[in-house]
Structures
1.
Amino acid sequence: MAVKNYILVCGGTACESAGGGDIYKSLLSEAEAQGVAEDVQIVKTGCFGFCEKGPIVKVLPEQAFYVEVKPEDSKEIIAETIVKGRIIDRLQYKSDQGAKGEAFDIENIEFYQKQYRIVLRNCGLIDPEKIDEYIARDGYAALEKCLFEMKPEGIIDELKIAGLRGRGGAGFPTWMKWNFTKQVQDEQKYVVCNADEGDPGAYMDRSTLEGDPHSVLEAMTIAAYCVGANKGAIYIRAEYPLAIERLETAMKQAREYGLLGDDILGSGFNFDLEVRLGAGAFVCGEETALLASIEGNRGMPTPKPPFPAVKGMFQKPTVINNVETFANIPVIINKGGEWFSKIGTEKSKGTKVFALTGKIKNSGLVEVPMGTTLREIVFDVGGGIPSGKKFKAAQTGGPSGGVITEKDLDTPIDFDNLIAIGSMMGSGGLIVMDEDDCIVDVTKFYLDFSVEESCGKCAPCRIGTKKLYEYLDKITKGKGEMEDLEKMKDIGSAMKKASLCGLGQTAPNPILSTIENFYEEYREHIEDGKCRAGKCKDLVHYEIIADKCIGCTVCARKCPVNCISGERKKPHVIDQDKCIKCGACYEGCKFDAITVS
Amino acid sequence: MPVETKELKMSEGLLSFITEWKKKPGNLIMILHRVQGEFGYIPKGIAEELGKMLDVPLAKIYGVITFYHFFKLEKPGKHTISVCMGTACYLKGGQDLVGELEQLLGVGCGGTTDDGQFTLEAVRCIGCCGLAPVLTVGQEVFGKLTTDKLPEIIAKFK
């Protein structure tokens, strides 16, 4: 009997950890218990992207889009939606503007409307642990086409027409990388996938690998055929256990199907790969450092040239691309470079996946065509800032990028425009800040990260990041001087010129960009001793307004260091010398009798 | 730090893993991962043993262990509480979680409680930014946290 319904349960990390795994199991047992197990296929898919509302369960063809589902809801989902074909109003996603609870096309949710899914084409649609589902959606068709219908030169031409640029951060044209490696004469070449997603606040590579691992395997095999490699490696963070597990399952299945290993699809072409684990070093996202790490050494970068295309893994010519870049390739081969080049802007083709997080209503993974404006991403897709707060800035490129403010919200996002407005694409973290965030404090957070992650090999980065951090620390403690800003700019520009690798060259960006865009806020910290967001504890000052205080003693009882004194029913006083600025009194006061300044 | 009472031994599984990887170039990090998977950290005695087996100086092994955040030289507590310090979590109060946990457990970040039950650490982004702020205890993820939910989480693992 044919299956009538499909239930798709999100199996991305965020949903899994919020109970997605239990929901999947209880749906299976409920379907069994209610005697409909044969009518419905329950699939655990990759990330839907809409992480804010997870765990998510989708039912087709009813177009039910259930959010924040709990395992206890399984019984009702089966009884109502599967058996009776009714949408459960209580669980159905309701948009802020749309009509409540009505059945609607999932594509019409604002979150998905401006999205265009190439990289995430299969995420949330297929079971990532079943190769047949990938194949059913044109999987491995591109590989077949390459092996039997295309010459390596033809593949490179197609990528050139497509205009695909590396999604790891720098945006280097992919066809050039492949072409360099192809042209080097060597018996042994390698293909490496960079899945060392270290940028804090970015998780698109993780979701791609968890939701559609075969797309990366297929692309790596195509790359290997194109450049003449027969071995490869995927370098992935050890912090991503689910992605590692799904990759290994995918590799095993691909081998069984003759899509990986010796004599792929009977073409005589051999290629196999293995998983190599990273161990928590951000610098290993830099390709030469990554290769050092694969070789079992401390992950320190080496000067380029020689580029990995000439001397890469184990000193052999190597193609290195990141996960998102690879995931684009099968689609380009299937639909043609011409098709791909029509999406995006003049110099940045295709789409970009962003991890939209921070102070935003709909956190999640979004894939939009290049050229979409930040305003559209933050306000249309992301739903704007929660709790009626005001947008302050968006940060792209993580510790290597900069901030984008209100005035640049309408810039079409692509590689070059972002650099022009003082930020960068980076791997695709997009963090939204509201008025409660202190720009100096956030910048200090990024520099703290860079200090920790600097490998220490070259002096500009090792000493520069530390000095920059010290200046910022001084400013957040109210001890800064205006000339510190100039000194930071000097150090920053020296680091940009003299550092060995991308980490040091870009580490000053958060500072340079925030001084440029939020000069006034730095000035307030330094000259007025004031932090308008109230984040810099040393600059915060709590005081009790005697007129408003009724002497209820709540604040005195909440204070963890007992620095509030006063008699019952009489105004209280804070001992400023003892105050640790925790804010407990402020939050506890019901009479607005405590001020922060 | 708890005292090691008995001498540590490599299991059969670990030994065969090492034999398998010994042939491959650049095997050190993969083997260290496996060692840590078995012991929870890289014990000194095992590192010395590894050096002999792989013909790698102990200094190099130590260099690699200390370069990467993931590898530990000290035995962690029974449960490791890892607070995410990615940007999204930081903005949404990850630092407050660390502060509160330090109070509750009476250890600093990176420390282990005297009874060997909990190790507290701050970690890099774990990629659940939609659930920020997040912490993990072992494999279990707790998201959208506030400081008042922490005692409950600790109680669950005690």
Note: The longest strand of chain A covers residues 351-358.
2.
Amino acid sequence: MSAGTLELVCPAGTPAALRAAVDAGADSVYCGFRDRTNARNYPGLNFDPEELAEGIAYAHGRGCKVLVAINTFPPAGDTGPWCLAVDRAADAGADAVILADIGLLDYATRTHPQLRRHLSVQASAANAPSIRYYRDHFGVKRVVLPRVLSIDEVSALVEETGIETEVFAFGSVGPMSEGRCFLSSYLCGVSPTSEGACAPANHVSYVESDGRVLSKLGPVTLNAFAPGEPAAYPTPCKGRYLTHGRASYLFEEPVALNALAILPELRAAGVTALKIEGRQRSRAYVTQVVGTFRQALDALARGHAVEPLLSTLRQEAEGGRETFGAYRKGWK
Amino acid sequence: MQTHQDLEDLGHALPVLAGAPPTAIEADGTPLALLQFGAIWLPRSVAHAVAVAVLRSVERAHPRLPRNLLALDPAVVHVIPNDLPYGFALAFGREPARLGVIAREAHGADATIRASTRVLVDLLEGRIDSDSLFFRRDLIVSGNTAVVVGLRNVLDREPLLLADELARVLGRFAPASRAIARRLNGWVEALLERVSAAHRVLHPREQDASAMFRAEIDRHRSEIAALTARLAQFEARQKRRDEKSA
Amino acid sequence: MSAIAPARLTLGPLLFHWPAAKRRDFYLRIADEAPVDTVYLGEVVCSKRESAFDPYLDEAVRRLQAAGKTVVHSTLALVTTPREVRRLRESAEHGLLVEANDVACLDVLAGAPHVVGPYINVINERTRDVLASQGAIRIALPVELPEASIRTIAAGAGATAIEVQAFGRQPLSVAMRCYHARSHNLSKDHCQLVCGLDADGLTATSMAGEDVLTINGTQTLSYGYGVLLDEIERLRESGVGYFRLSPHDLDMVRVATRYRELLDRQREPAAVAAELRAMLAGRPLINGFVRGHAGMTWS
């Protein structure tokens, strides 16, 4: 990456999505193993070691890096699978591992000092001292910043810490401090932090009632959709709740983060990399979103405007609507 | 959870998938319309044979697919296209996968997917993202969502093209099938044209249009049945040859 | 049983935004009457509330210390602004033991002895050991952990003490957004501190009418009150030495007294449960997390 360009970091939930991302112009792809060691532990998703090796060969053959997310928190007495995942990523020739747990960072630092370490958004490092802590103790080279910061705050962090930063460019708006939200396990008993699945599908159900569709997580009704009303992910933070007798999206509306229009500002803030969320999305999404961001970054590099691309991704957006999230004032 | 045996019992196997072969070969035709007409006309035995053959052929062409399907928890998913008279049942997990044709209102699924045929084919072929469809409510999932998520993720790992898969099934009978497909396609095109012309004339009296439509269908029904029977004969002959050579 | 270390009772930081005078009275009564060994003071949820209690802080600290209680300064759970970082540094230099609730504290404290609060993910023994080597003398575990995990972490903790929350609504998430303000159609910047209207938080009810969550400014808590009762004896045996009561708008002296009696085996868990139920007037007790079930459940 030369100075002033933004690295496009893209999701790969499957080998097919990895190839789609590479072909669509990703600079890096991130992926995880088929188990609890990553935060998208959904059935049928992710890579076994053989698939990872093939994926890395495909990506490297086309000048693309592969980052392996091992970003859940190993439960007490069972840290072995997480350490093994770090070993396997190193053996497969991954360009970096994305970690969140302090104990696992310590393991990776001691066992694979040459393996580049990125700090996952699950570690929720949203200030300069936190970033320094991870940098100084575990040699973290890059921090994936939580989606709770404004562009000015991002800029100040880059300036103060001098570390590589990766920010979310497209995906969900996570209103909660990530990696330490227990809402899903409170409702259904499966811990996102250790099991790698928020609102796991086997605890989600949809029930038709009086012409409406109710989405439920465990026993709790998260939402009720009238016919034709845009739907949100069945996560607790995208549910509708009653306060003062009035129903509202108390935490966050069904809306997607799309930073396409503010790429120049993010570049000016000194951001290193843009993260596209969506390892749980299909390869069609990957092709569409990565391709659009590739076009935008290329346009930007040539000094052209990105405006013509702005409406391209609305159909991929949660709730069919887009926001700048915390990047712009007023969201909080 | 359903067992695979239960799926057998569900088998009021009604035709659907057999309407698809022309789609495969006449990619520039109107594959969705053909799928729909095929669903109405094709005999059950042909549909069943084609469904089974397609699934096995897909599994042979994508050897990781059966492995990944086996790794899922056992489940039965009903896929109910909004615009077809029937639906499909797919059983997978721990045992080899099975595909069958079911009545739209069949019970016994762990999860049910409802969408238009166009959306379902696009989904299968990885041209469209299921979450986007979900947000827009173009895809309705009921029952155990995990089952559908697992199936979606496993299918999305493979570069499937319905056209290729069907062409592969038809194998050396492709020329004969192509001929059938062209005939069917031609009829359907003409049919659709006439229907829409009638619709333009008679609108908003939709009932008259549909009566005319039905009459047209009746006139062609017997000829199509004959053609599909020929297709089945070809298949049976091919099967015997395969067995002999094996 | 004689090998078991004495169990300490602590009073966690007040999570809700009570008027300063009410807060002062609360702590003075705690100083005089509550059988707790340690009291955590400090704003955990929102920096906009932080200065409100400043005029009374020193008095509260003095009175609590005079009553023989250890005072620990709890810090914000989510630090983002330079002003919040500055405040963190001031806390570290205040002279009190600090409870670190954001990893930022670990950098600021630079190895000085401290408590790791429940908002830092200590989920396993590896993380415990790293933090212990960096000055953690006590680790208060996140509320999400099941009993087996708590016991595993406590069993090998050595000189580092382990603390768990034994009573109170359970913190489930922290955020940048203020949901209290949102529920009043206000922005966070112009929130008018409406979180102060609800002394035990604001109930969020599902679309089907179940009371499920409690909103406390930028924080989300359980609706039910998390309690450890039968588990306490087993947790003590595995090495858990500190049990935290999270303050509510209840007779906390009475709650503390019952828990002290429970720890001293002078009262049965069932009797304590019955009394707590009566005090909570219909709001449920929950213990799902420690039992390894959905957190909101009771068994």
Note: Chain C touches chain A through 77 residues (CB under 8 Å).
